Amino acid sequence: MRLVVLFSAAVMAAAPARAQSLVAPPPAPERQRGDSIRSEHLFTRRDAYVAGGFLAGAALLAPLDREVDDALQEPAYQSRKALSGTASVFRLLGIPGAPLLSVGTYATGRLLHRPGLADAGLHVTEAIVMANVVTGVTKNLVGRARPAISPDDPYGVEFLGGFKDDEHRSFPSGHTSTAFAAASAASAELAHWAPEYRVPGAVVLYSAATLVGVSRMYNQRHWATDVVTGAAIGTFSGWKIVHFNHQNPGNRIDRLLLSTTPIPTGDGGVALVWTIRR
Fold first, then answer.
1. Where is the signal peptide, in residue numbers (predicted)?
2. Does residue 122 lie within any of the structural domains?
3. Residue 256 lies in a domain
4. Is 36 part of any domain?
5. DSSP readout, 19-45?
6. d(CA 86, CA 231)
7. Domain presence at residue 189
8. Measured between alpha carbons, how far is 44 from 36 in angstroms, rounded to an integer?
9. Residue range 123-174, pLDDT digits in tens
10. Alpha helices, H only, the chain
11. Which end of the chain is less packed: N or C, by CB atoms within 10 Å?
């Protein structure tokens, strides 16, 4: 049983590290107004390799879904208050932690007139939104039962069952996709604004996201394949949002939300003034 737990944790820990080495070089320099527009593909061959790695990991774990769940529900693990408390911390780090941190980073950047900070916070938030839209639609369509209500049948799905109740929204993991969207977008932004911190930052961010996924299995809210799929959705959401924004500076959302200037009001409040760029 312990070997199964260790194998599952090793697979999830290795996936983001491998992905980071393959797909997270610093974003290409931004195009300035008047520069020639280069034809670039949104999805690249490198993305296909990483997607294949995630799919292979999910396929390998699928036959072990029940075994991993059984192992993590052993009294030896569930009775430990330290493990239970740690799982709760990382669950909250995924939701609502990641969205609150990203919005807070954006707001701090705007208030302190730090464009790089605001840029990173906005794009991480966009990645989280994108990941949650994809995850939410998939959850409701697939209708996979959570392990807590169907521990003996990891393949129990009901088309459109997710619209019925939350207990049939297991696949994929929303907490995991949120955490990995934040980790991938933040690490890509870090590579853009502070490349000297790119590697240690990615290790910390992806490690935290992985532990969010482990906590969801520990709490019997998701199967291992739910977590791996959520990680894939979140990772790609982060990569693509940052890539698009830095290849298309001055897009509508950036113009709207990064062209504001916070001005203190006389009564202690703050007013936002938009600068319109033609």
1. 1-19
2. yes
3. no
4. no
5. HHHHH-SPPPPPPPTTSPPP---SS-H
6. 20
7. yes
8. 21
9. 999 999 999 999 999 999 999 999 999 999 999 899 999 999 999 999 999 9
10. 2-23, 45-61, 65-72, 75-78, 81-92, 98-111, 115-142, 174-193, 198-218, 224-247, 252-258
11. C
Number of domains in the chain: 1
Ramachandran angles phi, psi of 253, nearest 5°:
-65, -45
pLDDT per residue as tens digits for the range 27-58? 444 444 334 334 455 677 877 888 888 888 88
- The contacts of residue 270 (CB under 8 Å, 6+ apart) are 111, 262, 263, 264
Residue 158 · residue 168 · CB < 8 Å: yes
Token reading at 199: 């590697």
**pLDDT on residue 58:** 84
> CB within 8 A of 183, min separation 6: which ones?
16, 202, 205, 206, 208, 209, 234, 235, 238
Tokens 């020639």 belong to which residue?
Answer: 36
